[in-house]
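ok so for the tutorial part 2 we go from a plain amino acid sequence to predicted structure tokens. step 1 is just haveing the sequence, like this:
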Amino acid sequence: MLARLRSAAVFGVEAYPVQIEVDVSFGLPSFTMVGLPDTTVRESRDRVRLAIRNSGLEFPPHRITVNLAPADVRKAGSSFDLPIALGVLATTGQLPPAALEDTLVLGELSLDGSINAIRGVLPIAVAAKRLGLTRLLLPPQNAPEACVVDGLTVCVVRSLAEALEALRSPEAIVPARIAVPEMTATPCDGDLSDVRGQLFARRALEVAAAGGHNLLLIGPPGAGKTMLARRLAGILPPLAFEEALECTAIHSVAGTLPAGSGLLTWRPFRAPHHTISNVALVGGGSIPRPGEISLAHNGVLFLDEMPEFDRRVLEVLRQPLEEGHVTIARAARTAVFPARFVLIAAMNPCPCGYLGDDRRVCRCTPAQIAHYRSRLSGPLRDRIDLIVEVPAVPISAISEAMPGESSASVRDRVLGARAIQQERHGSDGPRTNAGLRAGMVARYCRPDSNGRMLLMGAAKQLGLTARGHDRVLKVSRTIADLATSKGVEREHVAEALQYRLIE
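step 2 — the prediction. this is what the tokens look like for a chain of 503 residues:
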């Protein structure tokens, strides 16, 4: 007898259907799997056998063959345990095969028959709806993700015996219903009002948040670079629903989604250590998984002490910073991970950190300073829109100065600027000015005659590349949006050029 049922696997952040065929025939007892299963899938034979027996059900003492189609794609993960077990039960008459129609089954089995959570449920639920399936059978921990997708009946099962009962008597199961949470502002370590002084850096932070621009903070130790960077998340607007779906799918595949979570309700903030590898940063592996830049999609990627990162690691950021995605090519398939984030980085002005500091003497030689700064290549620096010097703040200013403007006040202006951008670009256009392409830059960021003359003169003096020229225009457009100006004027261009004077 042959039983067929549906499951799914994830490659990159896209799910593809997997048809599982289970055949039980007479012969010497054996349990064979075909269809390019990896080690995790092959080990499911023992989990399935013991889960069936420990659930008080009969495991057939015959030859069992399990086929995972399509046969030319490697299958990975533990999500096939439950469908394989149900297929075995259907072939032995313990479950009507018709009960498996229009149902997609997912779940990892424990030896006692209980069902554990798996990764990547949200993209799998989207794929199930696309295939026309109406019912999803999965562990309770993954129900919030699946309930985000409309049009699916989500059946929660905690054990193999409960799954068997749910398929035998579907009318007795109450489908899971979980309300979609509201999007909220991103939580951060503190408020922007905690920052004393640093008016220029605070302004750059606001411009970066309003237009989605990349920002580099340069200053001595203790000047407040990390403090400023960690407060960027607090002035970003809440996620839109579509953005939340994208972020949740990525974190679900990576296994970083908090247990019991449905949608991520705030923008991600990722701050990897400088010892990170290039694969961990951009993603990869034999079966590609998202890296830190994809986990920061629609959020913030913070690289503290940026020159301390391996140069090869930093250079892999070039394509994602330009295109908003990263392509991981493997022999079997190619995975594309979204990676549109706001990069904020911090570095010292020299190896000792005290170049230009009035309180301490820098003892670095010019050659040491040049070598330290050369760790950031010219092409990478050219992709950073705002480069800001963060000087040391006197102790008296810290203790006596009044609190600065709060994150909530700055966020209101950022929201206003982003609303202007959305209205101007339309629903099919980029979400921020940083995402404007060449044709759009010429259309939306064209300065007036005075601004154009200033930019042309500065481009010659500063040696701006074509990319640098366009990025100055994008920043100018964001500054104009913060000022609710319809056109890009000379003063907006002048401020944008300030952020490229430190090279």
